[in-house]
């Protein structure tokens, strides 16, 4: 038949026959590439599942475990500061004007109760000793006079009112002597041991409590003014925490609960304390009450006035739990990865609860067997694979 075709038509035929073949080849290539790409992706991620090779499992150090029934404690966050009770701090001063003869301690020094802080001199103290000794001598004379007047009265030689006057004079002198003795004790002097040879203008100022000297406001030779603190002493062994707990949480707090806390620059769990009292009235400037907790440990770095962040351990519960690393978050949602097949892991939504000592309470939103294998290390990597290009995720 070709023999009857014109020459120019015979030469064009091969070209025309190639068009359908080229069209078929070009139309088929994109489809094949897309299918290959889809098959490759399906091997790694399908829906909410991630499939890994054995090599990938080893590379990321993936580890599985099971849920555990653990006793967990829910906590209440609160803030406050370290404070000292009134009997663990002291301001030491003088009742009368005096001059400082010498200062026996320095700031920061530890002192025992009764230890000498300073020696001072006072004319008032000198006069008080003189009055005490003079009154002591007068008491002896008045006592002897009363005895004599009583004997005369018994012999009906003097009147009753004479005896009564002698009794009144003695009573007045005794009262004055008692007052002078009390004043001498305020100076740290023992009036029972005072004699004329012991009279001095110098007296010592002593520490009323054991602790550390916080402030000294006088120097040698300076005049000390009455009722002005010369020394401040603090005993940090009595430190406790005052925590602010707001109205809605007050019912959850009671004496005996444990507290973990830390001051600025420390983790919250660095120190521990125990609640010993809860105030029964709100603070004047806010709807909160003070919760008082005694320190279980009293580190040297803890000082009165430090602000602290704390967790009050409120309620205990027994719950299914997983290590913290097993629970990952994507936005406000929390997930775990459950093994559904060899090296295949499905993301499952969970509700989280109490957290303690590296474990978190979990409640799966879909049924999960208690013996199911769950990713406890490497869950963050699986979440990254599922959320590539879909939004933020966190751990």
| Order of SSEs | HEEHEEEEEEHHEEEEEEEEEEEEEEH
DSSP, total strands: 22
CATH architecture term of the domain at 45-72 and 317-386? Beta Barrel
Termini gap: 78 Å
Main sheet summary: 6 strands, antiparallel, barrel
CATH fold field value of the domain at 45-72 and 317-386 = conserved putative lor/sdh protein from methanococcus maripaludis s2 fold
Strand content: 35-45%
Task: Note down, in words, how this protein is organized.
With 395 residues, the protein is α+β, with helices and mostly antiparallel strands. Among the domains are: 45-72 and 317-386, Beta Barrel (conserved putative lor/sdh protein from methanococcus maripaludis s2 fold); 76-86 and 235-315, Efflux pump adaptor protein, beta barrel domain (Elongation Factor Tu (Ef-tu), domain 3, Beta Barrel), CATH 2.40.30; 123-200, Helix Hairpins (Orthogonal Bundle). 28% of the residues lie in helices and 35% in strands. It contains 5 helices and 22 strands. It has helices at 7-44, 54-60, 123-154, 160-186, 379-386, and strands spanning 45-46, 49-51, 63-65, 68-83, 89-92, 98-103, 110-111, 116-121, 202-206, 211-216, 223-224, 231-234, 240-246, 258-263, 271-278, 288-295, 307-323, 328-330, 333-341, 344-356, 359-364, 374-377. The protein has a 6-stranded antiparallel beta barrel with strand order 4-13-16-15-14-17. The protein has a 4-stranded antiparallel β-sheet with strand order 5-12-10-7, with no helix packed on it. Helix 3 packs antiparallel against helix 4. Residues 1-43 and 391-395 have low confidence and may be disordered.
């Amino acid at each position: 038949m070709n023999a009857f075709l014109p020459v120019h038509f015979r030469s064009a035929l091969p070209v025309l026959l190639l068009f359908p073949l080229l069209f078929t080849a070009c139309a088929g290539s994109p489809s094949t590439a897309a299918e290959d790409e889809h098959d490759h992706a399906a091997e790694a991620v399908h829906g909410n599942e991630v499939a890994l090779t054995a090599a990938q499992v080893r590379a990321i150090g993936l580890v599985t475990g099971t849920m555990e029934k653990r006793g967990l404690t829910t906590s209440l966050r609160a803030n406050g500061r370290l404070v000292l009770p009134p009997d663990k701090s002291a301001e030491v001063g003088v009742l009368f004007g005096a001059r400082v003869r010498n200062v026996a301690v320095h700031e920061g020094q530890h002192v025992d109760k009764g230890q000498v802080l300073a020696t001072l001199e006072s004319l008032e103290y000198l006069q008080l000793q003189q009055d005490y000794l003079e009154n002591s001598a007068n008491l002896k004379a008045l006592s002897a006079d009363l005895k004599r007047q009583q004997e005369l009265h018994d012999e009906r030689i003097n009147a009753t009112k004479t005896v009564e006057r002698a009794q009144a004079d003695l009573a007045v002198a005794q009262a004055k002597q008692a007052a002078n003795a009390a004043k001498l004790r305020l100076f740290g002097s023992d009036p029972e041991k005072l004699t004329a040879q012991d009279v001095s203008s110098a007296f010592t100022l002593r520490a009323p409590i054991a602790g550390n000297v916080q402030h000294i406001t006088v120097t040698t030779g300076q005049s000390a003014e009455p009722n002005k603190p010369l020394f401040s002493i603090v005993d940090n062994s009595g430190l406790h925490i005052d925590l602010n707990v707001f109205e809605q949480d007050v019912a959850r707090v009671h004496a005996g609960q444990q507290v973990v806390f830390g001051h600025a620059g420390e983790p919250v769990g660095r120190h521990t304390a125990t609640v010993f009292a809860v105030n029964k009235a709100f603070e004047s400037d806010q709807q909160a009450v003070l919760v008082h907790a005694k320190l279980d440990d009293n580190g040297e770095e803890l000082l009165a006035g430090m602000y602290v962040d704390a967790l009050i351990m409120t309620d205990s519960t027994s719950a299914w739990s997983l290590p913290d690393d097993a629970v990952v978050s994507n936005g406000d949602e929390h997930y775990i990865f459950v093994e559904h097949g060899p090296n295949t892991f499905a993301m499952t939504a969970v509700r989280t609860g109490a957290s303690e000592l590296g474990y978190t309470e979990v409640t799966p939103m879909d049924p999960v067997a208690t013996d199911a294998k769950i990713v406890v290390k490497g869950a963050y990597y699986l979440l990254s694979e599922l959320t590539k290009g879909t939004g933020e995720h966190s751990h």
